[in-house]
Amino acid sequence: MSHRRLFFMAALLLGSIFSCEEEKKENEEIPKDSFRAEVAATPVRVANAEQRTFDYLINATGKIDAVDQVKVVIQRQGILSELNVKEGDFVEKGAVLARLDDSEANFRMEKARIQLKNAQANYESEILSFGTIMSSDDEERKGSITDQIKAKSGLFAAEIDLKEAQLEIEKSVVKAPTSGRVADLQIKKGSLVSNGAEFMEIINTNSLELRVKVLESDINLISLGQKAEVYPVSGSAEPFSGTVRSINPKVDENGLVQVSILVNNGKGLLPGMNARAIIRAPQNNSIVVPKQALVYRSSRAVVFTIENNESKWNYVEVGKDNGKEVEILSGIEPGSTVITTNNLQLAHQAPVQIVKD
């Protein structure tokens, strides 16, 4: 009985070994494609990589200023006896803004006129002594004697004193140097003012500019006359259009360059307002994809394309970014179908299914 049992167990063991080897052989013969077919395709949306002009957007912030903004300065000492404007008033160029008390200036004027008359009389008296020379044809000699007598009689000095007195009278009247609105009025009527005191500012609110700071790396993309959009921080339904008016040929200590943008029809804007500018810098013949098509794996930029209903992993070199689209310098060809959704965890050669809107 024991020999028969041993024989039976040996036969059973050999049978199980042969069956395991056959099962392993069958498993090895199953093609890998059958497993891939069992994986559900990832639904994705796609876009085309286009070769076209790409608008690189340069963003910068700054303050609104008036193109014509002039400080009015008092040109002589005196009491402000008349004030004709208040802050916010619009004035035309040459309009009388204020007057200083000119009683002392008028007194000096009368005094200067009397001194001039006395000097003129002395001159005429002295010139009679040179009647022969003055009646001759020697113009050079006559001119020399005339100048000497004018100096000796005090006529030269009297003429200068009269001009100075006239100038003091003129300085008593403060006129608008340009057209615009009155701002920052510093002096009240009746105040004693000194020579050189700041009186007010006149601002032309019809001509405004936005001064912004731009990175030095972007300055080569900006030129005079380039189009820009201006967005006030205070909020506006539509942006104001503008053009680049000037570029400061100097980089400051922070690596920034000042750019002035002339605002077209800036109605509602005031000097001193904060605003943001977007300057469009077109880049020609760029390969452009939606920003959603770009993902990063191990700190490297990747764009997935589709070939034979499978995802293809492409390392790319990225150029400029305008917030909506990305410039691709190398790594994919124009016309490629790029994946824009469900690409964050997508693998290479994974089955995908294009979802249409």
UniProtKB/TrEMBL annotation:
Q: What Pfam families does the annotation carry?
A: Beta-barrel_RND_2, BSH_RND, CzcB_C
Q: Which residues form the Multidrug resistance protein MdtA-like barrel-sandwich hybrid domain?
A: 69-199
Q: Which residues form the signal peptide?
A: none
Q: Tell me which residues make up the CusB-like beta-barrel domain.
A: 210-281
Report the domain of life of the source organism.
Bacteria
Annotated GO molecular function terms are:
efflux transmembrane transporter activity
Q: Which GO terms describe its cellular component?
A: efflux pump complex
Q: Which residues form the CzcB-like C-terminal circularly permuted SH3-like domain?
A: 287-342
The similarity comment for this entry is:
Belongs to the membrane fusion protein (MFP) (TC 8.A.1) family.
Q: What is this protein called?
A: RND family efflux transporter, MFP subunit
Species the sequence originates in: Belliella pelovolcani
